[in-house]
Amino acid sequence: xxxxxxxxxxxxxxxxxxxxxxxxxxxxGYLVVDELATRMGSPFRAHKSGRADVVExxxxxxxxxxxxxxxxxxxxxxxxxxxxxxxxAGFYKVPSERVVAIHDELDIPFxxxxxxxxxxxxxxxxxxxxxxxxxxxDFHRVxxxxxxxxxxxxxxxxxxxxxxxxxxxxxxxxVDTAADAVEVLIAEGLERTQQxxxx
Length: 199
Prior knowledge:
Largest sheet: 7 strands, mixed
Oligomer: single chain
Order of helices and strands: EHEEEHEEHEHHH
Strand content: 15-25%
Number of helices: 6
Helix content: 25-40%
Radius of gyration: 16 Å
Number of domains: 1
Strand order of the largest sheet: 2-3-4-1-5-7-6
CATH class: Alpha Beta
CATH topology: Rossmann fold
CATH superfamily: Peptidyl-tRNA hydrolase
Shape: globular
């Protein structure tokens, strides 16, 4: 990524590391950046900071005009995410308005999503940590709906549980759509993305 004339975007997949968390609703961000890495044709590798795995490259149509993107999966738990995000944003000289957080959202039904710029953390530990470390909430969010827990199930138990068998059939399409939204956001801007994906 030696071309310094094209701005860089930092796309952060929110999740918890390790196989025991891999299928959880809270890890949808990891699934989406994995899909984006596949589209970019590169595997994740350790960043020299030792605090995250990254993919560097261009996203979208081939050629010099394709946006420069760093995909990121932190190597820490969600509530400590902000430190590595701040470190990589500094390393790649990415301002907060070119940071994209992909995360699970309780207040949006499963199989729907919303894209926005800025806002609070709505009780989400990963977003809270990012806002605290970056000193601002003015980054983009791709909010992937997981819905509210059924009955009286505890919210923490719900987000740290696997998708239902019915949801698992739809999940690949949801991941694909969220990855599409990231591509459109970076290439065409927030307004166009909201028109297309804020179902």
